Amino acid sequence: MNKLSRRRLIATGLAATAGASGLAVAAKLARRYGLIPPDGGGLYGPGETLTYAAQRLLTRHSMAREFSHNQISKPPFPNAVDPLGEAFQRLRNGAFSDWRLAVDGMVARPASFSLGELKSFPRRSQITHLACEEGWSYIAEWIGVPLSHILDVVGTLPQARYIVYRSFQPGWWESIDMADALHPQTLVTHGMNGGELPVAFGGPLRLRVPRQLGYKSVKYITRLTISDSLKRFGKGLGSAAPEAGYAWYAGI
Amino acid sequence: MVRVTHWITTLSFLALLVTGAEILISHPRFYWGETGNVLTPPLFKMPIPASRATVPTGYGYVLPDQNGWSRYLHFQSAWVAVLTGLLYVVFGLVNGHFRRNLFPARADLSWRGLARVISQHLRFRPASEEDAWSYNVLQQLTYLLVIFVLFPLVIWTGLAMSPAIASGFPAAVTILGGQQSARTIHFFVSVLLVLFLLVHVVMVSLAGFRNRVRAMIAGSPATHRERT
User: What is the pLDDT of residues A104-136, one digit of tens each?
Assistant: First the structure.
């Protein structure tokens, strides 16, 4: 071994050690500041963690772009949904007056709200983009209660870190972190384009998360569970999406 | 460093290409502006079947859905490619690789210099022994275009499709004309990168595949035992 290659070997060794300890420190910091997504293990964990951590650092408080009325897509495209079944049809026949949104978990006052109660809450309307992971998109006006208002009403405990939300459709459930849950544009949506939210678009109640792809905006929501961890839900990957092979964080 | 980053980029580019194609077939239609879906007229559509039943393709069947792992791998490979690219660019600027090897000499940039190289190429004149180690002016311009125009553009248009990035950096989307425009440009830049890859591989083969690939991996062509 000549002098030059020994020097190179030492330099490479030092660089590798510095790199490895840098990674270890980064991983520790990421855990401390909640920058590791629930599906951050496994083969694609490193990429997911980099994406989630980078976007949380860069866009934690950013606002989704809002558009003008003349940019609303005519007509918008309702993605296909599985048959909703007889129980849903009965609720629909009653104009959804019996539809309820239960809120439980780490809250001071668990509650169950009727559609009427939710409509009496302060409402916000915004014209935002909905993009599907498949590549298509549309712009619509969404009307609803900011999720943060509902969390205030039930009194979220300080250790809360995630909101798990479930659909009337069996098997559909998702979760978001507090950055998205408390974001002013995250709406428990009951109206669209000036009217009621049509069933095809998730009516009577859809959680709209405009800074993430469409599959995080779950249709027909019936229950919110506030939790400090996602380990106990399903397979512990955060939501139904990673269980079906899709990323939990869909800000990209 | 140039060689290590080259082969890492090659691997991640191939992964990006395969997964990009998988994602594309879930909606093989392209639009211009902010929005587009099956109810709006496309800019153009690809004559292929889709992996979603909601897309009218004219084919009587639907391909299997591969988007889950394709998206995971696409973004992970994108991270690898971007970080490797940054390393390469910083290294290339610091150690003079760009200045020495990629920036064309002033004399080469004259019309006469360009014409000479082009006519050599058209007559399939092989590179002379002393040229085997350096890039000619056409190679230099192509590599500069790929490194400083096409790669940045494909990264930018990719990021512009992200709803979170669009919220944090709205100008990055509006300059392109909207998120669907970003998707369409992303597609065309990818096509150009694939064309570059094909020409690159053909040129390497014409230059003597074994010898060139040995140079790309080990650093020196066999004819050049001693680097002076």
Answer: 999 999 999 999 999 999 999 999 999 999 999
Kindly state whether residue A1 falls inside one of the protein's structural domains: no
Which of B76, B78, B179 is facing A137, going by the closest CB pair? Answer: B179
Cα dihedral sign for B158, B160, B161, B165? positive
Nearest CA in chain A to B72: A44
- For residue range B96-140, what is the model confidence (pLDDT) as tens digits? 999 888 888 887 888 888 888 888 888 877 666 666 678 888 889
Structure tokens that stand for A57 in this block:
């650092």
Are the beta carbons of B71 and A51 separated by less than 8 Å?
A: no
Residue A44 to residue B69, Cβ atoms within 8 A? yes
Query: Into how many domains does chain A fold?
Result: 1
Sign of torsion, CA A206 A207 A209 A212? negative
Structural domain boundaries, residue A90: 66-243
Is residue A16 in a domain? no
Spatial CA neighbour of B43 closest among B200, B195, B178, B135: B178
Task: Answer whether residue A21 is part of any domain.
Answer: no
- Indicate which CATH number applies to the domain containing A177: 3.90.420.10
pLDDT > 70 fraction of chain A, expressed in percent and rounded: 98
- Write the DSSP assignment of A13-54 as a string of letters: HHHHHHHHHHHHHHHHHHHHTT-S-TT-SSTTHHHHHHHHHH
CA distance A172 to A174: 7
Identify whether A185 is part of a domain.
yes
Domain assignments of chain B as residue spans, ordered by start: 103-228
- The reply to whether residue B67 touches residue A63, judged by beta carbons under 8 angstroms, is no
Q: Taking CB atoms and an 8 Å cut-off, how many pairs form between chains A and B?
A: 123
Determine whether the interchain pair B167/A63 forms a contact, defined as Cβ–Cβ distance below 8 Å: yes
Asked whether the CA dihedral A55, A30, A26, A239 is positive or negative, the reply is negative
* Residue found by looking up tokens 């520790």 in the block: A28
Contact A64 B67 (CB under 8 A): no
- What is the distance in angstroms between the Cα of A88 and the nearest Cα belonging to chain B? 23
In chain A, residues with a C-beta closer than 8 Å to the C-beta of B68 are: 244-247
